[in-house]
Amino acid sequence: MDIIHIIQQGVQQALSELYQHQAKADEVLVNVTKKEFEGEYTVVIFPYVKAIRKGPAEIGNAVGEWLVKYLEEITGYNCIQGFLNLSLSDAYWLRQTDYLQAYPDYWKQPATGKKIMIEYSSPNTNKPLHLGHIRNILLGWSCACLYDSMGYAVTRTQIINDRGIAICKSMLAWKKFAQGQTPEDAGMKSDHFVGHWYVRFEQAFREEYESWQATPEGLSRYTAEKEDGESEADFFKRYKNTYFNNESQLGAEAREMLKKWEADDQEIRSLWEKMNNWVYAGFDVTYKALGVSFDTLYYESDTYLLGKDLIEKGLKENVFYRKADGSVWVNLEDEGMDEKILLRSDGTSVYMTQDLGTADLRYQETGADQMIYVVGDEQNYHFQALFAILKKLGAPYAEGLHHLSYGMIDLPGGRMKSREGTVVDADDLIADVINEARLGIAERGEVEGLSDAEKEEITRKIGLAALKFFMIKIDPKKRMTFDPKASVDLQGQTGPYIQNAYVRILSILRKGGTMDNADATGYKVNGDEKKLLIELTSFAQVVAHAARQLDPSQVANYCYQLAKEFHRYYHEHRILNAETDAARAFRLEFIQLIARVLEDAMGLLGIEMPERM
Known about the structure:
Number of helices: 25
Number of strands: 14
Low-confidence stretches: 415-421
Shape: globular
Radius of gyration: 30 Å
Mean pLDDT: 94
Structural class: alpha/beta
């Protein structure tokens, strides 16, 4: 039983014996004592004042005396107004240190028998992964690691958006302009090669559209359909999608290609498979560089027709209704939304249809108790509607659906736009941060004597730590601006700062040699060590809370606080040349424990720790 529960039960019993007041142990508020007061843990007394009809100081002092008398872990107390500050025995802290060392998985939960599926990344096959995908991927991967440690059976998955008009744009551009060129011919990574043709299509379309605007037809369209006071530039900006769908020659060719794909035209299907395979090969390289993977894959080309059985079920149960034109709708006004189309009048699916079918398929295949979708906050309404519809259908898994809605990433100059080629590609970003780490290592000269391969591995770990920590340390719900310079800063609240604490500990341990825990017997634990031990014992609670909140930034901030406290401890206390043999033995064991927790915590974020840097 951890010390929080021991204190809670002690307070419960004290209140019962002293005042015949029956409090619930799990409702006793116990916090870490503020640094300006003596003690390690603080009990909040105010909730009992009204029922007991005595002042908070009187109650606090009486409970404090009782705890010192009956709980061996507590040796002293002080009561400041309604806050009872408790001091714990040195013997307790020594036992706690030995326990944390003896049970390295103390922060993990046993298997629960529950299953969870987490969907992340889910890219389109018309372009490479970019900066936005990195945030998505790292959040999904970290949440999967958190739930692994919580005893869940985790399935990591993605749905690959491998069909549709955007895919046909890159296919059409390659067919019209590439003259059979391959990624090898162009000397390009294969997913970047496909993305090049997507941008090329948009360039060709823009040229076509600008030319059309100057034609008599374009000018007459502006004259006939402009809104009051609308400028020519604003009209043509608004009219762009209508032009693509109704007048554009390139738009017509792309739509025709999509129709042929849906009709299983062998020439189009062959081109589609070839270009998608180029993209998949490129994705795999990026995923490997980021250190992430998936247990299952779903493809939109397989799932886009799913969901129609659920639509029929909903019609039969009067959950959905059919309009006069044959389209099928659901009314979500009772959920604070509006009507939502589920099937078009020609019987074809919309995205909601296939998402309903995919959710049902996943449940049938895995029996997942929870399914988490890691998707940007621009899709909040879609997922709110999806979950509401599945509840109306009585889906047994509906209550276990969650949308990890995260804020999008801006550049200092504004939003990224894939079709204009103004994105930060994931591969380029990974290479940049690793190169920045390489420059820093060369400047410091701290890995001299290592082989080139060892130096390169350390460089990789430091660069990726800088990138990953920068992405994860921000609350997922917050929109963030990606600042390339700040992301690779190796000082401050960064991944390399935490790695440095770990590496420093390993260096001390290498010099310290073997240690015998028994040599620390009788050591008087100082206040800084108690503070760090409180941080270490809270790790399990941090992980559990981060998992429940789907917020890995809480673990990132925990890592930073632990590393910062260690750095301060290192500068203020001798370790190898400690004042006594008992102090040396305890501190070597103690910092080894800190290093292990730092490594475990950073591992939950997908960050590897180097042995030197």
